[in-house]
Amino acid sequence: MSDEKQIYVDLDDVLSETGRAFVAVLERDFGRTVDFEDMESFDLGASFNLSHKELAAFFVAAHRDEVLSGLDPMAGAVDVLNDWAMAGYEISIVTGRPPSTEAASRRWLDRHQVPHHSLTFVDKYSRDIHPGAGVEEKTAPVSLETLAQRQFSFAVEDSMDMARFMAGTVGVEVSLIDRPWNRKSARVEGVSRCVNWQEVRALFP
CB of 147 within 8 A of CB of 170? Predict the structure, then answer.
């Protein structure tokens, strides 16, 4: 199938309720309480008031298999992906998670019967904190430059930086899932904010 029949779908906070789970990890493992709606920065160090050392420890804790396997799916997401797949589109799931989470990520997708044709790990944010440090990674993340060589029919993201990249560099219409950390972002041409997956479906029926 040609690239034009692919739909880019981010994983965390697009398909899974990752932010809410991270809030729970913060309280359980670090004794700090932050309301999900107060996560106004995509930088978790800023949102959770963590030092660099604490942030590194948090990423390790938050990417444990038991945390990732327990994530709730976003309401309505699987139904919409099934509709797209039945219409002949390939669902390309793209994530900025460390590749060390590949097995857990694939198990989650299978468990929740998320239709997809591929799972791609992308070096989205060039973070200097690597949760998988010391873990042999069989899958190397691809660069943004490599991602930009692919063509998509549509994209769904929660990161405004990635939405801007997809709309501006890749040249695809993007649905931005409304999250606290992207609400203060300036409007970007080609990026439409959607409160839920019903609105995403309406944007790309």
Answer: yes
Which pTM value belongs to this model? 0.91
Q: In the numeric block, which tokens belong to residue 178?
A: 């409304």
Dist. CA 140–CA 133, nearest whole Å = 13
Cα 19–Cα 21–Cα 22 angle in degrees, nearest 5: 65
* Per-residue model confidence (pLDDT) at position 3: 53
Token pair, residue 23, equals: 């809030």
Query: What percentage of the chain's residues is helix, strand, coil (to nearest 5)?
Result: 40, 15, 40
Q: What is the CA angle 10-12-17, rounded to 5? A: 135
Range 34-60 burial, b when 16+ CB lie within 10 A, else e? beeeebeebebbebbebeeeebbebbb
pLDDT of residue 121: 96
Encoding tokens for residue 199?
Answer: 């609105």
pLDDT, tens only, 107-116: 999 999 999 9
Rg (CA), the chain: 16
Q: Which two tokens stand for residue 95?
A: 């994530």
